[in-house]
Design goal:
Elements (H helix, E strand, L loop, with lengths): L2 H23 L17 H27 L12 H30 L6 H4 L4 H27 L17 H4 L7 H39 L3 H29 L3 H24 L9 H31 L2 H4 L2 H21 L4
Length: about 350
């Protein structure tokens, strides 16, 4: 199955789930389904802000994801330069904080809402359970896709020997393993496949979260909430796009596939906003169905993003030869990660 097909199926399932929650909301007349009322409840003002939000967030998303793709024309930002490593570490910190500080708390809030029945939602930690399952499923996808690629291209074990722990046996005593040209080509192909799997998995998690948060923004009638959320989302999409763009760059896709990936990332949040605006009359953030669907999707997205950030991005870089060979670069990369994660954590105040 190609990435475009799986991405389309993911969006289709997401829209079906969200649509079911939207439609069901209009049939529930409980106190939890009553919309926000007060000084900031103004549909005309909120509508103007949301119309401004669509092109603004679209531009920020495109700028973020496209910036790394054009970095090859800048010598200092070439993938084998130290500056690129630091920028990628910063963006990985942003993705990590997105999962822990934005998506996961939203899921906790939804699945522990007083609008849900205490049994079973108050008796079991569904958020962390779903996030755990999502992380394990991401590991399965990583492993199975890499195995499938290796079998399909008949890549031998020598190509991935550098990922294994050394053992003291007769073979090791004879010296380091010798690789011929074919083994080097196999290792390059394996690394390329690995980068492509990472790019695909990461984009899937981002797309799910982007549609959900866009839907919530589009359905809101509270200008006091919408205004700061737009600014936070612009920075969010900009920095998150930089992380995804770096993964797409290392995957070495052709122009067509790069365009498809950029299109999906850039348009999902504006699309979610437009969908929320269109269905705002029947949508209720506090309807039980909406809370369950959005909460489960956010938990799954959080597990995927956290696994990808820690295992596929940060661990792979920090355990790699480039960072292991320089303590100075390691500390700079750690600082970049903390800066990206810290900045994204501060944004959690508004979004």
């Amino acid at each position: 199955m190609t990435f475009t097909t799986s991405q389309a199926l993911t969006l289709l399932l997401l829209l079906l789930f969200c649509s079911s929650s939207l439609v069901s909301a209009q049939f529930n007349a409980s106190e939890c389904d009553k919309g926000f009322t007060g000084e900031c409840h103004s549909k005309p003002k909120a509508l103007r802000l949301k119309i401004i939000a669509i092109p603004t967030i679209l531009a920020a998303s495109m700028a973020g994801v496209c910036l790394p793709l054009f970095s090859r024309s800048v010598p200092a930002l070439h993938p084998d330069r130290n500056l690129f490593v630091l920028v990628k570490a910063f963006a990985s910190g942003v993705i990590l904080a997105t999962g822990y500080m934005h998506v996961l708390p939203d899921s906790f809030k939804d699945l522990t809402s007083p609008c849900l029945r205490d049994n079973p939602w108050g008796k079991f930690p569904f958020t962390t359970f779903v996030a755990m399952l999502a992380a394990v499923c991401t590991l399965m996808v990583d492993s199975l896709m890499l195995s499938f690629f290796s079998r399909k291209n008949k890549i031998g074990a020598a190509a991935v020997i550098h990922h294994e722990s050394p053992t003291h046996d007769a073979a090791s005593e004879r010296g380091p393993p010798q690789f011929d040209k074919d083994d080097g080509d196999d290792a390059r192909k394996t690394a390329l496949c690995r980068h492509r799997v990472i790019a695909q998995v990461l984009e899937t998690g981002i797309v799910v979260h982007s549609v959900v948060i866009g839907l919530s923004l589009g359905a809101s009638q509270n200008p006091c909430t919408v205004r700061p959320l737009i600014a936070a989302l612009c920075f969010h999409q900009l920095f998150e796009g930089m992380g995804l763009g770096g993964c797409i760059l290392l995957a070495e896709y052709g122009a067509k596939m790069k365009s498809i990936l950029v299109f999906f990332f850039s348009t999902t949040t504006p699309f979610g906003i437009a969908l929320g605006m269109a269905l705002s009359r029947v949508y209720s953030d506090n309807s039980p169905t909406a809370l369950i669907v959005v909460g489960v999707l956010n938990a799954a997205s959080a597990g995927l993003l956290n696994y990808t950030a820690l295992v596929d991005l940060l661990a792979a870089d920090f355990m790699g030869a480039k960072l292991q060979g320089s303590f100075k670069l390691q500390f700079l990369a750690f600082a970049a990660v903390l800066l990206g994660a810290g900045g994204m954590s501060v944004m959690a105040i508004w979004a």
